[in-house]
Amino acid sequence: MSNDLAWILNDALKVPEARHAILLSADGILRAHSDGISRDEADRQAAALSGLQSISRSTAEFIGDSESPWRQTLVEFGNGFIFLVAAGPGAYLAVSATQNVDMEIITFRMQQLVRQLGKELTSPPRRNADHSV
């Protein structure tokens, strides 16, 4: 995995009290990580956060609309938070932060990054190669 998108994820860490950021696929594959987290730890977290997203999505019926699209999950711990948001088709952005983070600022910044990531993750459609001899 190249970590070409780390520069975008590092922008999330400009919010005071933000710690780490990772971009993952729906199946738990790490796509990119910020500089402050090791590749091994980011891989482990990507797998776990994929499961968390899946569980969150499966509880849509609890709000009375099982077809409602999942948008984000917030997990609060004694010493911090994990923010997990949709970042495009089959991609999710996760940011961890201390308990002192301004939740409004970090979620706003994450939405800005999602828009930026959408542009970076979009590639032009493939054209069929002419294989005639």
From TrEMBL:
InterPro entries from the entry?
Mycobact_SerProt_Inhib_Rv3364c, Roadblock/LAMTOR2_dom
Gene3D superfamilies reported in the protein's UniProt record: Dynein light chain 2a, cytoplasmic (3.30.450.30)
Q: Where is the Roadblock/LAMTOR2 domain?
A: 6-97
The superkingdom of the source organism is Bacteria
Family matches, as SMART domains: Robl_LC7 (SM00960)
Specify the protein name: Roadblock/LAMTOR2 domain-containing protein
Native organism is Embleya hyalina
